[in-house]
Amino acid sequence: MSAHPANNPLQPGDQAPNVVFDAISREGKIALDDFRGRSPLLVGLFRGLHCPFCRRHVAALAQLNPALREKGVQTLAVVNTPVERARLYFRFHPIAGLLAASDPARASHRAFGLPIIEFTENETDWPTKVGMDAVMEMRVDLPGELPEPMNPPAAGDLLAEKDPYEIKDADKQVSLANHLQLLGHFLLDREGVVRWSFTEVEENGRNLCRALNPEELMSAASHVAH
Predict the structure, then answer these.
(1) pLDDT tens digits for 123-173?
(2) What domain count does the chain have?
(3) What is the DSSP letter of 146?
(4) Dist CA 46 CA 75 (whole Å)
(5) What is the mean pLDDT of each run of 10 residues along the chain (226 residues)?
(6) For the chain, what is the radius of gyration of the CA atoms?
(7) Neighbouring C-alpha atoms within 13 Å toward the C-beta of 96
(8) Terminal-residue alpha carbon distance, the chain
(9) Which residues span the domain enclosing 75?
(10) What CATH code is carried by the domain that includes residue 213?
């Protein structure tokens, strides 16, 4: 498996790589090639479950899963959390019907071209570096979760306070000091070709910590399913 060029996520028309994961929601392995020739697949590549945004994004994906399955689209959520730690989390926060996998080495993120961004004091060269001055100008809007649009650090702190998630050594092992793994969603057709994507790389940082647009996703899924 070769990684896609860094900072240049796979685009519609690109062939997705095969990546093999440890399954979280069942025993054994999951490979992207398992779906090739069988069904379209939505791959959600997240940070670890220590990220309060990602916990919510995974839960949102689980809510969309039944509608996607009606269109014949399978869904796979990939988190950087080590598999045993992730299994413990999902034991208490079930995601019925959603296939989940562990990738603490971030092999899938590299393979799909999702970069790790460095936080600096005031130097921004998106998507390799972002200054904290720019981060503080960004706004995340999560109606029902946040009282108002907030900058990502403040929003993350508030969401973390609302969750009973205790950071353990397994979480610290995959945390990146002064860096952040950017995430993305990729909708693959039956042949493993990307047909739609939504990543934090796009929009020069305005997508940072944002959830995907369900209407856009379902529209793309309708086209891929036929």
Answers:
(1) 999 999 999 999 999 999 998 999 999 999 999 999 999 998 999 999 999
(2) 1
(3) B
(4) 13
(5) 65 97 94 96 97 95 95 96 95 89 97 97 96 96 93 96 91 92 97 97 92 95 85
(6) 17
(7) 1
(8) 29
(9) 20-115+169-225
(10) 3.40.30.10
